[in-house]
């Protein structure tokens, strides 16, 4: 009889793979996680509930529909073991809800079934009643420890002047709500220290995203590491190993 288990042999990465890994790591380091070093390393998070989601994406369709879809597919594919359908299960309303669903009930159930919440924060999401409802429900029920903020408004105005998006007030230990137009009011008073966030303002206006784009791949890596609660360099290494081709004799069947 054959095949009751599969054995793999370890083998060094070939030069072009080592070069690709170093390039991705450099890009990841340039992808800005702001504030709170602990979150840059990855914060421990509740495991995915059975039949649930690793993350729920809350966003404004008017400006971030394409980015939300790109992040969903990217996180599902990044560092995916060859034997699994996806690396992470990510909820996005347009891609996850079946037609005919009772909208808020379905969203609430999906929030409850999610281990983390990703907020694509923009001036449009800040005024969206649906985003405010999702974030408010999450904060009241789970707090902010499993909430990841991604800023999607460009960092600069059209004239090159810096744009206010999310400004922390150390004295008040809260956001300066006169200078944080990208954040939903549901976050008012929710944080006790400045949260980490991922800056994807450079992606505004793009209509297609691919993991072959180094900058987008680095963003997906950083976000996936935060959701999984693992160090970023570890996850990048896992992704490189999954893409490494089998060497001759690297896979063999062991007799039962």
UniProtKB/TrEMBL annotation:
> Which residues belong to any copy of the TIR domain?
52-212
UniProt feature, compositional bias: Basic and acidic residues = 1-10
Pfam families listed in its UniProt record: TIR_2
What domain of life is recorded for the organism? Bacteria
**Region (Disordered): which ranges?**
1-22
Q: Origin organism of this chain?
A: Streptacidiphilus pinicola
The biological process GO terms on file are: signal transduction
> Under which name does UniProt file this protein?
TIR domain-containing protein
The record ties this protein, via InterPro entries, to:
TIR_dom, Toll_tir_struct_dom_sf
